[in-house]
Write a structure and sequence with these properties.
252 residues, two-stranded parallel sheet, eight-stranded mixed sheet, 12 strands, alpha/beta
Length: 252
């Protein structure tokens, strides 16, 4: 069984990943910017900051695998993705750990600034001497629900998403840990591709929450979304559908 350090362990993916790693017998250490090293049940925490690299060396001590799931698409995204990944790579390399980087489907073709930062981080991983695996996934259910809860969200003629359950992606990541360094593995997408209006209507019907969709022109990175560059219809790997996830949220 592997000793695994998880960055972003308290995020949407991390909250699903940590118990699954433990459930399959792996020991887990979660990186935290605030908590000092401690043990809570079977989960250990270690203090460190991917942005500055502070504490990463100590956090990686005796670690076999580092899953780099820390991300911040809304603030300091490029620094988090590019500089943060470089810091994590350096620390993982010093202990000869297997680095698993969690990325997004389509980042090598998309003009969206956050996706471009993710692709630059991938290049750091690919060119490093560290043993590595990259797993790209589509958007989580939670993210689309957040988008549709904004005062307004974009709509274009063909805009669609292949939303995926964070728990399904977490299961795949545990498989990646157990397989060992594998380079870039197959994309991981949700079980269905749904248009933005269908996504919004299902959400209204199941939860009673209405979304305001605003037509916008197909320009720049919005055109890339309308063209579906963030989709992987040939890789419908996830199991939980959008409506199933919404129903689980409605049940509380």
């Amino acid at each position: 069984m592997a000793r695994v350090l998880v960055t972003g362990g308290t995020g949407t993916l991390g909250r699903q990943l940590v118990p699954r790693l433990r459930g399959r017998g792996h020991s887990v250490r979660v990186l935290s910017r605030r908590a000092s090293r401690a043990q809570a049940g079977n989960i250990e925490t270690a203090r460190g900051d991917v942005l500055t690299g502070e504490g990463l060396g100590d956090a990686c001590e005796d670690i076999d695998v580092v899953i780099h799931a820390a991300t911040n698409p809304r603030r300091r995204a490029r620094k988090t993705e590019v500089d943060g990944t470089a810091n994590v790579l350096r620390a993982a390399g010093e202990v000869d750990a297997h680095l698993v980087y969690v990325s997004i489907v389509g980042v090598d073709h998309h003009r969206f600034w956050y996706y471009k930062a993710k692709r630059e981080a991938e290049r750091h991983v690919e060119s490093s001497s560290t043993r590595w695996t990259i797993l790209r996934a589509t958007q989580f259910h939670d993210l689309l629900d957040l988008f549709l809860g904004y005062p307004a969200f974009i709509a274009t003629p063909n805009l669609a998403f292949q939303v995926v359950d964070a728990g399904d992606v977490a299961e795949r990541l545990v498989d990646v840990v157990e397989a060992g360094p594998s380079g870039r593995v197959s994309d991981f997408g949700g079980p269905e591709v749904l248009g933005i209006r269908e996504l919004a209507e299902s959400r209204r019907r199941i939860t009673g929450k209405r979304a305001r969709l605003v037509r916008v022109p197909r320009v720049g990175s919005i055109r890339d979304f309308d063209d579906g560059l963030h989709l992987c219809p040939d890789h419908r790997s996830g199991r939980v559908t959008w409506e199933e996830w919404l129903e689980s949220q409605a049940r509380g």
